[in-house]
């Protein structure tokens, strides 16, 4: 049992070293992802507030899945999520 735990620990450290190396090279991609996620989160917050003030019962929830969608697709992801909700609203 101890050998298996040792092997898993060595594999985990190797994976961590590889991830750190990838992050150094792809810092711009990660920063771009984070900025898109934050901007879209702010847009969704204000659009949800606007729609609720107009009495329209459509709001995109803020969850891990929606944040990943925002980070990957940007404002197109926001439009896609609102489009899906408006189709369900009809």
Give the overall shape, derived from the CA principal axes. elongated
Uncertain regions spanning at least 5 consecutive residues: none
Binned strand content: under 5%
State the separation between the terminal residues, measured CA to CA. 58 Å
Overall mean pLDDT = 83
Extended strand count: 0
Portion of residues in helices?
over 70%
Count of runs of 4 or more consecutive helical residues? 4
Can you offer a commentary on this structure?
The chain has about 90 residues and is an all-alpha fold. It has helices spanning about 1-25, 25-55, 65-75, 75-90. The mean pLDDT is about 85.
Task: Provide a short characterization of the protein structure.
This protein has 90 residues and is an all-alpha fold. 84% of the residues lie in helices and 0% in strands. 7% of the residues are buried.
Can you give keywords for this protein?
90 residues; mainly alpha; 0% strand
């Amino acid at each position: 049992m101890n050998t298996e735990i040792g092997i898993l620990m060595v594999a985990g450290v190797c994976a961590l070293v590889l991830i750190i190396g990838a992050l150094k090279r792809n810092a711009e991609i990660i920063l771009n992802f984070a900025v898109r996620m934050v901007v879209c989160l702010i847009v969704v917050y204000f659009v949800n507030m606007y729609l609720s003030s107009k009495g329209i019962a459509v709001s995109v929830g803020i969850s891990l899945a929606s944040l990943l969608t925002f980070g990957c697709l940007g404002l197109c992801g926001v439009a896609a999520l609102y489009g899906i909700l408006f189709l369900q609203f009809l």
